[in-house]
């Protein structure tokens, strides 16, 4: 028996007419086709169903064993729609009362619906696939689906979109520094915006931003202190940047001539390091708090605040030395103290973790009293 399967991947039939799918049999399929054509005459799935009826009638006149059915997916993602189609194909096959081997002829309206063919083939052998499209737009849907696939595939997307975006940025970059008239400004702005959009799509920045927002939302609802710690740390980093710039201005005013590159970096570090260290301690304490609440805290995690303080002490002393704020003795003392602070904290928490681990192991091996 040949099963003529009309595929409606996005379930236009069910959404627009209220028909329950799958639709099996010549008369029910014709009723569904008329209902869909009445609800939306421009829907391409109308052509698919009528094509299925045409094939059914043609094969019936040849006295061949044939059945026609309409299966649909849903308007969600492709994976969910394909699974829905597979379930409906199983329902259709279970309803066929025949001892003959069943094969299928799949009728679709374009390349997107044909993505479900592997799902159908896993359930019934396929004799052929027939695509029904409007003659005036024969390749339009295939072109759209191909472009959509390129934009959705991470590897192809990065290979195609990133170079194209860089090329579009060349034109506005070439106009920088020259007098721009209105047409050139508009074209340059448009090219820059389009180039930045293509690069962001190629790098998947939109998906990453959505993931970051979703993680932040879940952290907020879960009451995680890390989110609050990151907000406070960001504010502290900004304050550190302002403090570093103020320190740099003070160094330039007191310097004779222009401040060198080394003095500039030292001034920025000297003015901002205490704020950045406070931000690092804040984020590490927030992470430690969340780990403790989740009962996943390990002793070595407690090293993080001490490491931050150790590095901050070293950087503060080095930058102060290059600004002639301290002498060599202070620098050597600070370097030694910072190094010892990191080493002592590491050893201390390692010993504590080892002791607690050994104690837990002994408790686990200790036999229970009768």
TrEMBL record:
One Pfam family cited in the UniProt record for this chain: DUF373
Source species, domain of life: Archaea
Cited InterPro entries: DUF373
Membrane-traversing stretches: 158-176, 182-200, 221-242, 262-285, 306-323, 329-352
Record keywords: Membrane, Transmembrane, Transmembrane helix
Keyword Transmembrane: yes
Record-given protein name: DUF373 family protein
């Amino acid at each position: 028996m040949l099963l003529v399967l009309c595929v409606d991947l996005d379930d236009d039939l069910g959404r627009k007419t209220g028909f329950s799918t799958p639709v099996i049999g010549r008369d029910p399929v014709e009723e569904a086709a008329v209902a869909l054509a009445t609800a939306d005459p421009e829907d391409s799935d109308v052509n698919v169903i009528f094509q299925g009826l045409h094939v059914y009638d043609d094969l019936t006149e040849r006295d061949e064993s044939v059945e026609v059915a309409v299966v649909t997916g849903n308007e969600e993602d492709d994976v969910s729609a394909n699974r829905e189609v597979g379930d409906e194909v199983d329902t259709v096959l279970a309803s066929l009362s025949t001892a003959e081997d069943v094969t299928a002829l799949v009728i679709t309206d374009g390349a997107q619906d044909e993505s479900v063919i592997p799902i159908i083939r896993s359930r019934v052998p396929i004799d052929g696939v027939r695509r029904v499209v409007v003659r005036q737009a024969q390749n339009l849907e295939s072109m759209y689906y191909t472009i959509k696939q390129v934009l959705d595939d991470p590897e192809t997307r990065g290979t195609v979109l990133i170079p194209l975006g860089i090329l579009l940025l060349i034109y506005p970059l070439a106009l920088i520094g020259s007098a721009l008239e209105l047409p050139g400004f508009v074209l340059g702005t448009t090219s820059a915006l389009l180039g930045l959009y293509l690069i962001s799509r190629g790098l998947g920045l939109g998906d990453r931003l959505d993931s970051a927002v979703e993680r932040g939302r879940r952290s907020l609802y879960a009451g995680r202190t890390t989110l609050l710690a990151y907000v406070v740390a960001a504010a502290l980093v900004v304050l550190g940047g302002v403090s570093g710039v103020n320190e740099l201005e003070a160094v330039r005013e007191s310097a004779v001539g222009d401040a060198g590159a080394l003095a500039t970096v030292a001034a920025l570090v000297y003015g901002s390091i205490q704020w950045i260290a406070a931000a690092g301690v804040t984020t590490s304490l927030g992470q430690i708090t969340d780990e403790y609440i989740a009962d996943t805290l390990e002793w070595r995690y407690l090293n993080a605040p001490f490491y931050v303080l150790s590095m901050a002490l070293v950087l503060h002393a080095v930058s102060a030395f290059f600004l002639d704020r301290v002498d060599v003795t202070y620098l050597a003392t600070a370097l030694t103290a910072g190094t010892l602070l990191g080493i002592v904290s590491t050893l201390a928490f390692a010993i504590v973790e080892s002791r607690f681990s050994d104690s837990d192991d002994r408790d686990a091996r200790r036999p229970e009293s009768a």
